[in-house]
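@here heads up, posting the sequence + SMILES for the zinc ion run so it's all in one place. Ping me if the SMILES looks off, I pulled it from an old spreadsheet.
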Amino acid sequence: MKLGTSCQVCAKPLSEGEMRFEKKWKGKAYFACCPICFSLLQKDPERYIDRWLSSGLETWARK
Ligand SMILES: [Zn+2]
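bot reply: prediction finished. Complex structure tokens:
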């Protein structure tokens, strides 16, 4: 499991096998836990990823 990878929408921790829903955005990969979270992330990545980044929690996936 990669350290600190969580669903970018609901913050659920993800194991490597659960990282199936990948959204590439501005050169990095972000992950969602399920099709519902993924569709939210697809629709409005800026909203979720910005919120994540501005929370100060460095738990998004880096590439
Ligand atoms: Zn989720």
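MO: The chain has a mean pLDDT of 80.
MO: One more: The beta strands are 21-25, 28-32.
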